[in-house]
């Protein structure tokens, strides 16, 4: 039980997060430092003393003061939290997030805050009656002719773009949220360069999962009637990019068709057009499916009530921001420079990523809940497919990635991806998916259903960084 004089203040931040502000007693601090010194003494060989018996004063001279402080903090805070949680009858869902405000050996004093994560709370909406309109994937003769022309510059492989920014002709899933509007924003499936000028300019050069703040002037005939003709400050998030790489129409073209692009080799122009049409259709079907997956997740989150501990989404957001900062440093910039280049202040960017991370975590919790309720099971095939997908994204051979996971016992992301895909497949099989309207003409984009509430990501598609984590 906590020492009678230990002071603490409890604040219930939400149904899944409790915050404590704690001031330890002098005895707790002294005891923690003593245990820290004894720990170091056991690791040291001091002439004339058996291991663990060297006097504190001697150990103090031989050990880095910061190492002592770190070890003492772990001892003091660990015991204080254990006592506090026992006294308050709290069962944490995961490790607390601790922030040390002050720790001194001489005073002695230790003050810290701790966020205690509780088990997520989920009230699922009816996930077996979701309805979504699938974008039309019909490919016209004009589309075929346009892409035949691109054979002069590009290869004939459909691929998800991760290593560069968006360019004209790329297919993209875009989320737009008007400043001050509740909810997740609205999703659009579009072709870069064929939306409207301001949005095309905003999308140009953006990478998958990147976000910007822009002021857009929506066309008067824009499909979202409440936005049509208006000028709004918005956050634009590029969810994913897909492109079709096709070969040049020169003397090497025939050779390439005989090697890497045998599937496009044709006896007549009519045959070639038919094959290109099939290629474009499959690319649009993939993007259409990604759009449907996104819409199903968004709709389900709108229908559900989900509470998650702050520590879960804060760790996801912090990880992403650390990665962005590392990327910025490699380019000789700061994180503030990166935010500014995307039309945001640093504070706005952090807020945006916090919002995105919370949604990701909530989605992951929903997926886990459905996986358990439906008694879904992962097979070796499910795990192998996820492994192959990860290996392709990280550009390493699958056996090498598996060896790394086995060596480090780090299978969490593999399992998360497999669970996510299993649940997404389940949602698709139970949803009512209707055919969408004809493919949008240039200068328009196709929109999804609106998000109704601001609910707060863990799994939009699991993210694509070898370092990540997502839960």
Keywords:
13 helices; four-stranded antiparallel sheet; elongated; alpha+beta; Chitinase A, domain 3; 471 residues; Alpha-Beta Plaits; single chain; six-stranded antiparallel sheet; 3 domains; Trigger factor, domain 2
Task: Tell me the layout of helices and strands.
Elements: E1 7-14, E2 17-23, H1 26-43, H2 56-62, H3 65-88, E3 97-104, E4 109-117, E5 121-123, E6 131-134, H4 141-150, E7 157-160, E8 171-178, E9 186-191, H5 197-203, E10 211-217, E11 231-245, H6 251-258, H7 269-303, E12 305-307, H8 310-330, H9 335-341, H10 346-373, H11 380-394, H12 398-408, H13 412-430, E13 432-435, E14 446-447
Parallel strand pairs: 6-13
Antiparallel strand pairs: 1-2, 2-4, 3-4, 5-12, 7-11, 8-9, 8-11, 9-14, 10-11
Helix pairs in contact: 1-3, 4-7, 8-10, 10-13, 11-13
Head-to-tail CA distance between termini: 32 Å
In CATH, what is the homologous superfamily of the largest domain?
A: Trigger factor, C-terminal domain
Low-pLDDT runs of 5+ residues are 438-471
Overall average pLDDT = 84
CATH topology of the largest domain: Trigger factor, domain 2
Class from helix and strand fractions: alpha+beta
SS summary, helix count: 13
Strand content: 15-25%
Indicate the radius of gyration in whole angstroms.
28 Å
Number of strands: 14
Kindly state the percentage of residues in helix: 40-55%
Question: How many discrete structural domains?
Answer: 3
Going by CATH, the architecture of the largest domain would be Orthogonal Bundle
The level 1 CATH classification of the largest domain is: Mainly Alpha
Report the principal-axis shape. Answer: elongated
Largest sheet at a glance?
6 strands, antiparallel
H/E series: EEHHHEEEEHEEEHEEHHEHHHHHHEE
